[in-house]
Amino acid sequence: MLLMSSSRDSYHHGRLADALEEAAFQLLERMPAAEISLREVARAADVSHNAPYHHFRDRRGLLTVLAERSMAGLNREVEAAINADEPAAGAAGASGATGAAGAAGTMDAAARLRAGAAAYIRFAVAHSHAFNVIYDPLVCIPTQPTKTMAPLIERLEQVLGETAGRAGFGDEAEVRALWGLVHGLGTLCAAGHFSEADAHAACDAAITRMLAGERAGQESALGSEATTGPAPAPGPDASASAGS
Asked: Per-domain residue ranges for the chain?
């Protein structure tokens, strides 16, 4: 008599890891990381309760993998929004400014900045548990990222920094202030403190004001240079005095 093998003993060693990670990630979409146990992952993957220990060192190892996968997902969504030809819903913000340039509908630098910020907020709201595990200091220890997480963090910082720079932001402190604001809006919105529409409107208003401040500062600096002009060259008397 032939028996159909159950999923508990049919996983090839290579597929077991994929099945466990996928089961854990599906659980993360429904519940906070703090509520996910290795036994729960085994149950969701329909494998023995000992099976996860062949892939995850312990529960923290499980959460680390979830954080890494979540960070990769956040990166993909932010980069896709920044590189898109048209702004996604929410990227225009309350003012309705998309920053579209030309008949082809391609976005300018400021519009791409808004699009990236909007994508960051959307991810925080749509995948709140995944977003939270990324920034859980007990999972991803600040200044001590894993070998997998480190390049993901560097990539996100690079993309956000370059996009903000092209839009007109100056030094690193200003870029950090901008993305701290965006992160805070996403976190508060995901926690239910205000609606997603309000978060996008606030983000758009803040970016508009910050960019206006940057432009005003640049224009003021240029005007000051034009008014004062270059410093006069020292006269012959000054040269003689300096040499004496």
From this structure: 11-56, 66-226
Tokens coding 121: 């907020």
Chain segment 154-188, per-residue pLDDT in tens: 999 999 999 999 999 988 899 999 999 999 999 99
Task: Give the Cα separation of 212 and 31 in Å (integer).
Answer: 41
55, 49 Cβ separation under 8 angstroms:
no
Locus of tokens 């925080």 = 124
pTM of the predicted structure, to 2 decimals: 0.78
DSSP assignments along 29-81, one per residue: HHS-GGG--HHHHHHHHTS-TTGGGGT-SSHHHHHHHHHHHHHHHHHHHHHHH
Question: Do residues 80 and 131 touch, judged by C-beta distance below 8 A?
Answer: no
Domain range 66-226, CATH architecture: Orthogonal Bundle (1.10)
Q: Which residues pair with residue 106 across a beta bridge?
A: 101
Let me know if 229 is exposed, middle or buried by CB neighbors in 10 A (0-12, 13-18, 19+): exposed
User: Where is 124: in which H helix or E strand?
Assistant: helix 109-126
Evaluate whether 200 touches 90 at the Cβ level (below 8 Å): yes
Query: The domain 11-56 is classified under which CATH number: 1.10.10, 2.60.40, 1.20.1420, 1.20.58?
Result: 1.10.10
Question: For residues 28 and 45, what is the distance between their CA atoms, to the nearest angstrom?
Answer: 13
Sign of the dihedral through C-alpha 198, 181, 86, 73: negative
Q: For 138-150, how does the pLDDT look when each residue is reduced to its tens digit (9 = 90+)? A: 999 999 999 999 9
